[in-house]
Amino acid sequence: MSEKRVRADARRNEDAVLEAAKAVFASSGVDAPVREIAAKAGVGLGTIYRRFPERSDLVAAVFRREVDTCAAEATALAESHPPGEALVLWLKRYTAFIATKRGLAAALHSGDPAFEKLPGYFRSNFEPALTALLDAAAAAGEVRAGVAAYDLLRAVGNLSIASDEDGPAYTAGMVDLLIDGLRFRAVRPAEK
Amino acid sequence: MSEKRVRADARRNEDAVLEAAKAVFASSGVDAPVREIAAKAGVGLGTIYRRFPERSDLVAAVFRREVDTCAAEATALAESHPPGEALVLWLKRYTAFIATKRGLAAALHSGDPAFEKLPGYFRSNFEPALTALLDAAAAAGEVRAGVAAYDLLRAVGNLSIASDEDGPAYTAGMVDLLIDGLRFRAVRPAEK
Amino acid sequence: MSEKRVRADARRNEDAVLEAAKAVFASSGVDAPVREIAAKAGVGLGTIYRRFPERSDLVAAVFRREVDTCAAEATALAESHPPGEALVLWLKRYTAFIATKRGLAAALHSGDPAFEKLPGYFRSNFEPALTALLDAAAAAGEVRAGVAAYDLLRAVGNLSIASDEDGPAYTAGMVDLLIDGLRFRAVRPAEK
Amino acid sequence: MSEKRVRADARRNEDAVLEAAKAVFASSGVDAPVREIAAKAGVGLGTIYRRFPERSDLVAAVFRREVDTCAAEATALAESHPPGEALVLWLKRYTAFIATKRGLAAALHSGDPAFEKLPGYFRSNFEPALTALLDAAAAAGEVRAGVAAYDLLRAVGNLSIASDEDGPAYTAGMVDLLIDGLRFRAVRPAEK
DNA sequence: GATGAATGAGAGTTCATTCAT
DNA sequence: GATGAATGAACTCTCATTCAT
Question: Which of A104, B25, B181, C55 could lock A177 by a disulfide, CB 3.0 to 4.6 Å apart?
Fold first, then answer.
């Protein structure tokens, strides 16, 4: 059987769809018509519906894929940079992730069961990643301890939501301001 | 004579529509069906369309009315509280204003000409109001100087957008963290 | 479309929709596209959906209206004709009713809650009507007693389903054959 | 050599498809998705379309196959039972045939050219079969003569259409009633 | 030959906007 | 002026049919 070759095509198409969806969601929000995504991906409507029976399934798939990618970078950064720097760099990376999620917050509250697991997925991937970065930075006396990673994720997330509109430079500035908030009353290690 | 009566009626209706729209936008977002607003206001659909030829006109009207109300409170607070406190209180008030604007950010980017002037209206009302509060607080050494009021408006705005979801307490906490960022490196008057 | 229609014509529109639906259901079955009905009624799609939020509501409304009309004729016929004749005439009338119900039987078994009450409506209107006719005819010795009205309703109903195809004359002939079945072993009053 | 094997395979597949289609049509109607049939037959969609270029071709093929089988049983019954009994038994068998044809009547009126020849096929197979049974029963004085076989085919067919719904017992009862209609005024052979 | 991924027309349904009353 | 019935564009989703592998 030529199953494998067919699958290769399918995989290519699935990638194309996810890429197109990511782009369309970023520019037009998660409520963008499925047709627009199909057109951008260069596939038929049915191809999308075959893999993602409801539009919400597609939204969820794009979301998960990007969460995976973004969370993976946290450890990479932690290994290649000093703690404070790694923290800031990753928050910036995370900022870019959020910037493509226009309209998702609203969708998450729509009650659609396809979205039910997304907040959990988000948290279980990002919270440990950011906690590690935060702990390391606190240990180095760069930031105050005791700030919940999850709260910070949401705060930076909210700050980043309008990034397209205000420009990345603005978002960066505000995240810096928030990090300054963390630095306020930070305790430097005694020996230092 | 009858003109006057008619105007009074019209005004009453317009108020009812704006109040209803404000409530509906806050709970269902600015994409809520016009019908819902008409029903809540107790008027016919046509009455809304007479005054606000397109949906976006109604959104804009509600927005402007609330901007006016909120901006007016800045001066009131400045007169009745010490600078640092007035700043924090108003930011909290502003936080409540934003919390009812779910979906507006997206609408502002829709390209609808009815929304074109809204950002300008927002800025020209809120920026001076916050600048005054900020300057007073900086003069009192409560916060660092040099932070642009407009940037802060957007930052707090974004932090507040998800307030319903995360709870007002969370929003308050994050705004406090941001204000801590402002306090970081603030220069106390004595040292000046 | 015509220029004059609205509130007073709402009634006219509802009638037009029901008439159009009746005709379309009769010719294309109850699964006919709503668009087709709208076109035939000369109204917009939304007009139909305003009154009949789901297509099944429209099907149900048409059904009820015709049940009412047809059942009412049973008593009229009973009063104006001798028992045996009234029975046959009404069954013929009922035959015409069924002939327009193509596809309804299947729809009734679809599990759609909008159809749940239809069989009950059908039965509670038609069964008493036919029972009266049957009893009178049996009392006159025209047909055998002991045949359940409901069974006969279904039998004649099924015989009539394809009437369009086979022609009313054929249906009439077969209903006659069925009635001959009823006459077989009928007990004449004198012999009683 | 391999040709023979391929043919055997093909035949096996065709059989599987026809069996599956028969079952699916019986349970879900002739409008059931082709996919469902392919899945039940354990073949790919393409395999069905290779042999039956359109859905309607498959419907027609299933129909013809069952007509053949059912018609063949008429002669078998005539040889193994007395005339009146053979008639009743075959009508019951025919009743089962019809019971699996839900939705076909509507399809026949769709105007699809693939169905054009089906009524003729039906008639040319069943009419002689039933005529023979009817003539034999009339000759034996069991039923009245002069009833057209074709009319009776359609009548019993229509009575049977809803058999699933009303239950086979009900259908049997109504067919019996119809046969009683035939017995009404039957002329017993003088000598008997 | 068989497979099933891909296609896209078409159907149901929603809701902004128009306009007769 | 107010009302709400009517309109129809636009959206999601289904499934017959085609065709690359």
Answer: B181
D24: tokens are 């699916």
| Paired tokens of B82 | 């010490």
**Which CATH class, in words, describes the domain spanning A61-192?**
mainly alpha
What is the distance between the alpha carbons of residues B126 and B72, in angstroms, rounded to a whole number?
9
Q: What is the DSSP letter of A157?
A: H
Q: Is the pLDDT of residue B46 over 80?
A: yes
Does residue A47 reach within 7 angstroms of strand E, measured from its CB?
yes
| pLDDT tens, residue by residue, D48-100 | 999 999 999 999 999 999 999 999 999 999 999 999 999 999 999 999 898 88
Distance between the alpha carbon (CA) of A37 and the C1' atom of E8, Å: 15
B5/chain A closest Cα distance in angstroms: 43
Q: pLDDT > 90: what percent of chain C?
A: 47
Cβ A102–B102 below 8 Å, yes or no?
A: no
Which residues 7-46 of A have a C-beta within 8 angstroms of B?
29
Integer angstrom CA distances of residue C70 from C64, C73, C75: 10, 5, 10
CB of A4 under 7 A from strand E?
no
For C62-191, CATH gives 1.10.357.10
Q: Are D127 and C147 in contact (CB under 8 A)?
A: no
CB atoms C154 and D174 under 8 Å: yes
pLDDT band with cut points at 50, 70 and 90 for residue D183: confident
Say how many C-beta atoms besides its own lie within 10 A of residue A4's C-beta: 7
**pLDDT (mean) for A138-159:** 89
Convert the pLDDT of each residue in A15-71 to its tens digit.
999 999 999 998 888 889 999 999 999 999 999 999 999 999 999 999 999 999 999
Residue D161, chain C, CB below 8 Å: the answer is yes
Domain borders along chain B are 1-53, 60-191
Q: For strand E, is any atom closer than 7 Å to the CB of C21? A: no
A47-55: list long-range contacts, CB under 8 Å, 24+ apart. Answer: A47/A13, A47/A17, A48/A17, A51/A14, A51/A17, A52/A17, A54/A114
For the B1-53 domain, the top CATH level (class) is: mainly alpha
Given a contact cutoff of 8 angstroms between Cβ atoms, the answer to whether D186 and D134 are in contact is no
**Dist. CA C94–CA C84, nearest whole Å:** 15
Lowest mean per-residue pLDDT among A185-189, C4-8, D32-36, D147-151 = C4-8
Cβ–Cβ under 8 Å, residues B186 and B138: yes
Distance of CA B22 to the CA centre of its chain: 12
- For residue D108, which residues of chain C lie inside 8 Å, CB to CB? 165
CATH 1.10.357.10 fits D60-192, yes or no: yes
User: How far apart are the C-alpha atoms of A45 and A35, rounded to whole Å?
Assistant: 6
Distances (CA, A) of D12 to A141, C102, C129, D19, D23: 76, 37, 55, 11, 17
pLDDT of A2 over the 60 cut:
no
What are the tens digits of pLDDT across the range B101-133?
A: 877 877 887 778 888 888 899 999 999 999 999
Chain F footprint positions (protein CB, under 7 Å):
1-21
Nearest residue to nucleotide E6, by CA–C1' distance, is A47
How far from D51 is each of D15, D30, D32, D44, D111, CA to CA, in Å? 11, 18, 18, 12, 22
**Local confidence band at C159 (pLDDT 50, 70, 90 cut-offs):** confident
What H or E segment, with its residue span, contains residue C148?
none
Number of Cβ pairs closer than 8 Å across A and B?
81
CATH of domain B60-191: 1.10.357.10
- Mean pLDDT (whole number) for B86-107: 87
Go through D97-132 and write b for each residue having 16 or more CB atoms within 10 A of its CB, e for each that does not: bbbbbbbbbbbbbeebebbeebeeebeebbbebbbb
